[in-house]
Amino acid sequence: MGHKIYFVLFSINIFFGEDIVMSKKGLLNTRYLNFFDNTFDYWEVEQSYSLSEEMIKESLLQTPKSRDSNVSIYIHVPFCANNCLFCAFAGANSSKLRQIKDYAGLLVKELKMLSSLLSVKNSRIASINIGGGSPNLLGENMEYVLNEVCALPGVSEQTEISVESSLNGVDEQFIDILKKYNVTKISFGIQTVDDKIRADMKLLSLKNKILDTVLDKIGDKIKIKNIDLLVGLPGQSMQKSVQDLEYAMTDKKISAVSIYLLSKSSAVRLPLSLGTQASEHELSKTLILMHDKLMSEGWIRKGSSTYYRGSIDAESLAKIKGNEAIGIRRFEDILISVGPSAIGYAPGIRYENTDDLDTWSEMVKNDKLPFNYANSSLITKKDLTLTLFPLRFEGLLKKDLEKIKENEAISSKQFETFHKLISEGFIRENGDKYELSILGKVFMGNIVHDLKKEADQRLIEHKIEYKNLLKSGGNGAGKSQYKYITKNE
Ligand SMILES: C[S@@+](CC[C@H](N)C(=O)[O-])C[C@H]1O[C@@H](n2cnc3c(N)ncnc32)[C@H](O)[C@@H]1O
Ligand code: SF4
Fold first, then answer.
1. What is the rounded CA–CA span in Å between residue 294 and residue 453?
2. Domains by residue range for the chain, with CATH
3. Nearest ligand to the CA atom of 201
């Protein structure tokens, strides 16, 4: 296996060496000195201190729906009984598990409030994603949630339904509920199969073959069985990451794999002292190697970070909308998000559910929209179609780019950046659209950042710096280090 790795890396250097503005110091010979540490918060907006519930309600009611609007639903389950060290949800609300039945009821209540305000009854619902935390902790209450959400007008045979789960606590009854509602995909956070790293990260041991047992229990009841792998865990070398991927590719029961780069700012509890993390140079090579391995063995990328086995049945694959980043990808999209801390969107509206479970529950019980109004916003960002396109595996249609240019949604600076990214080999033209090259895929987060307007770039940098500051206990040690090589370096 070893010589194959080095051959691919050698080829990568030759392949990209001549096309890209070169600097020996940048990752993979690009001008990027590090990854932009941002996995999920791709569409931050300024805080607003003057929004009221009435203003948001009114805006939701007025939301224009174009035929282009892609409507999806995200249902958040902020409960987890596990303790994975890198995860912001570890142990979330574990002392409140007795409330889970009430919680299911309140989720459905919020879902109904929002879908009626947005009057999405005439729109097709593209996907429903139930994530967390550990949604399997809903247990038998999952039946009620699925029954209600599937009864919404707009949900059809073509709607993708994905459910995240932790490996422990998945029983036959839970699997049968998912089968009854024709769930398309179940996703387990495996992260790594390396026993030592698993123990260090407080992940469940796989020595008792729990993964095999669970996959056998599911069998064909759910067509797509996905596992998440993390890259960049302490003690994880390139070779170990490749071994993780080979494990997933060899086990035919696994039909899809999502590869995420560890976000340090989200890993709030990961001790800085624990193991060494591979250098960003090594991480960038690892990502490109994993991508190459999947593509060369016929896996299909559908989603910002997810690949499906080539042999997967066409009907299931057609249902997959590829929005595992749980966000919107175009200005016109609508995302109905329910549950504490879940972030939703409609053109010109970004709303954030309040993150405290008890506050959220109280507000829903009292028929209030359970939002954090300071973190919500009515600022219109028409350039989202451009800035978020790196998350769309479908790419950016040239006609969509023309449309936003005509609407003067993007500045000349943004347009310049777009063309610079093309000349550097991150974005390439392909017929009627633009898409990320393999290199662009590796630097997806950096490209989203770069395509934003300068004020929006500062906003997201500050947000990450703030998270890092909290993580370092306020001494600033975790400050964001996002840097480019400039012409003078
Ligand atoms: C938050 S978990 C929820 C689902 C479920 N409990 C599980 O473990 O699969 C979903 C995925 O987020 C990813 N994740 C967690 N912490 C992360 C971090 N600090 N950086 C990047 N991805 C992370 C992991 O790959 C995990 O499988
Ligand atoms: S990765 Fe999943 S199981 Fe682990 S702490 Fe996070 S939400 Fe819980």
1. 34
2. 2-33+383-471 (no CATH), 53-319 (3.80.30.20)
3. 2
